[in-house]
Specification:
By secondary structure, the chain is an alpha/beta fold. Helices cover about 35% and strands about 20% of the residues. The strands form four sheets. A seven-stranded mixed β-sheet has the order 4-12-11-10-7-5-6, sandwiched between helices. A four-stranded mixed β-sheet has the order 1-2-3-15. A four-stranded antiparallel β-sheet has the order 13-14-17-16. Helix 4 packs parallel to helix 9, helix 7 runs parallel beside helix 8 and helix 10 runs parallel beside helix 12. The longest helix is centred in the last third of the chain and has 18 residues. Bound molecules: pyridoxal-5'-phosphate.
Length: about 375
């Protein structure tokens, strides 16, 4: 069975993914099973997506109810799930308007367009991003991404992007006071870049400089958002008010949806015809996200922080662990003796799914994972570190 899946995939699916030699078949919560019947504990949530675990019954009920009521319509008409979701996101973030797309890259594309149109009034078009950032795989979001390895083969890229080093205040001041910049886009915790949180002082300085220089402060919460770091969005722990917040991944809990939230300063920058998406904010994905966002409450955030403390206690100072970084249930572990890829492969052999981010092993477990599963998973991880 597994061989058929692998054969068909390798024959017919574009070879963009370096897959593990496993064909997953079914799942519930943090437990997965492959086509040979082997069981796995999941500490990756499909890269930070299935916040309440796989096939969560409440989420499945919300989605199937919506499917049986009103499915795809297009954005030519109003639909209640999209409108309600936008209202809920604004109420819980202080943002004013939301554009819906289908992925993180699209949420960021929207932010980049908002930045460019915002800068039209004073002839500014440069968008600042950080080295080591990750913002997506489209040509524009690759231009924003501050990692050269993603740029090979795909140039030329659109002009008007400038990268600075994270936590370097002098570079930040120079860029944001240059008079050329319309926006800065940054992740509060660089996820793909190695699970590295930004310093609070640096982020607060960015906010101050943005205010003083009429620059948009845009926060990419594609990975950090939706409860992952122990608050609804990570910026809420940094004491800042961004002008733009983008998110995706966990937002739909397993269905594709991305959101670009706009604050007071730029809520009306995009007008009719400026942007659009056939599927963006469709009733089914919006119903999925409504289910997720309405369940992300203080109890869940407290649970995230407790599980983070548990993971840190298990791993900090454990044999083979050179360091632990991250925020909430977004954790990076630096292996002392092996590469992160080797640890991930060895864990999979032992029935544990983990992620990597550069030299780190990365954990993005379901936010409600049971302590029993978490402990069992960490034991496998510790053995392989
Ligand atoms: C911070 C960040 N931004 C954007 C993206 C791109 O999201 P997507 O793969 O949904 O396009 C990712 C994906 O890992 C991400 O981590």
């Amino acid at each position: 069975m597994q061989n058929t899946t692998k054969h068909n995939d390798q024959t017919y699916v574009a070879g963009t993914y370096g897959r593990f030699d496993v064909a997953l078949d079914k799942a519930s919560g943090a437990s997965y099973q492959d086509e040979d019947g082997k069981a796995y504990i999941d500490l990756g949530s499909g890269i930070g997506v299935t916040l309440f675990g796989a096939c969560d019954p409440d989420w499945v009920a919300a989605v199937t109810t919506q499917m049986n009521t009103l499915g795809h319509t297009s954005n030519l008409y109003f639909t209640a799930p999209q409108a309600k979701l936008a209202q809920l996101l604004c109420a819980r973030t202080g943002m004013k308007k939301v554009f819906f797309g289908n992925s993180g890259a699209e949420a960021n594309e929207c932010a980049l367009k908002v930045a460019r149109k915002f800068g039209e009034k004073n002839g500014r078009s440069t968008i600042v991003t950080l080295w080591n950032s990750f913002h997506g795989r489209t040509i524009a979001t690759l231009a924003a991404t501050g990692q050269d390895k993603f740029h090979e083969h795909f140039g030329p890229f659109p002009e008007g992007f400038c990268h600075i080093h994270a936590n370097n205040e002098a570079e930040l001041v120079e860029a944001l006071t240059s008079g050329k910049v319309c926006a800065i886009l940054m992740e509060m915790v660089q996820g793909e870049g190695g699970v590295i949180p930004l310093n609070k002082e640096y982020v607060q300085l960015a906010e101050k400089l943005c205010r003083e220089n009429d620059v948009l402060l845009m926060v990419d919460e594609v990975q950090t958002g939706n409860g992952r770091t122990g608050s609804l969005y990570a910026f809420q722990q940094y004491g800042i008010t961004p002008d733009v917040v983008t998110t995706s991944k966990g937002l739909g809990g397993g269905l594709p949806i991305g959101a670009c939230m706009l604050g007071e300063k730029c809520q009306d920058v995009l007008g009719k015809g400026d942007h659009g998406s056939t599927f963006g904010g469709n009733p089914i994905c919006a119903a999925a996200a409504l289910n997720v966002i309405s369940r992300l409450n203080d109890d869940v955030f407290a649970g995230v922080r407790e599980r983070e403390a548990f993971i840190r206690k298990e791993l900090e100072g454990a044999p083979g662990v050179a360091g632990v970084t991250g925020m909430g249930l977004m954790i990076g572990i630096l292996p002392e003796r092996k590469t992160s890829a080797q640890v991930a492969a060895d864990c999979l052999t032992d029935g544990l799914m983990v992620l990597t981010a550069h030299e780190k092993v990365r954990l993005l477990p379901p936010l409600n994972i049971s302590y029993e599963e978490l402990k069992a998973g960490l034991n496998i991880l510790k053995k392989n570190l």
